[in-house]
Amino acid sequence: xAHGDKxxxxxxxxxxxxxxxxxxxxxxxxxxDQTRSRILDAAIGEFSEHGLAGARTEQIAEAAGVxxxxxxxxxxxxxxxxxxxxxxxxxxxxxxxxxxxxxxxxAGERIVRFALNHFDRxxxxxxxxxxxxxxxxxxxxxxxxxxxxxxxxxxxPTMRPVEELLAEGMRTxxxxxxxxxxxxxxxxxxxxxxxxxxxxxxxxxxxDLFSRKALVARRKAAVxxxxxxxxxxxxxxxxxxxxVLRQTPMPKSGNLKTFEVKFK
Length: 264
Known about the structure:
Tetracycline Repressor, domain 2, Arc Repressor Mutant, subunit A, disordered N terminus, about 75% helix, about 260 residues
């Protein structure tokens, strides 16, 4: 090839482009994914704070750093954006919940980790809890709601493996023999009741039950209680509880004001 002959370069360049046809497309796709992600992150905050009816797409677009036209390019309507927001939150919850059930540990330990993950999710992922409460209110009022897809995307994928783990734990005699659903109510229901009753109990006890120090103490007590109640061998349960707490730092708490009770 003569020096300065660009035909070879052009041929090589075309060949490379054929070998990597998606390089430019991939960059564009990555940018589009990042934009969509920013919109969803902004929507999570707006919808969890104001609900579907009160949320403003102008605020979401501004928070995401895009204009309304671009927002509606990715999401054709406010309802479509709301549905996508719920789905995005559901995927995050399922991913973290299932991670707490990863193999390599006994069935009992995975149940304890799942219960602790549930506790941490309530106080650290307030956006999801707020959206769930709003959907429950819409269901109670007989309004159209998104609970059914949430049941399929969040609760069914996580409850089924938990049921299987409880059965395994009972079969191997690590866990006490009891109704599986009652055990789940005891483990997860206690978490929910603590946060729902926290404002009133705090007034009765003259304590801030949602302070960092109080939350650390409550999650520790919750895990240690499970170690003493669902395991046949309480010493084994105590060791499991201590290991789970040691290996699972408490995440930063979110905004807990949705639990606040205001009295006139």
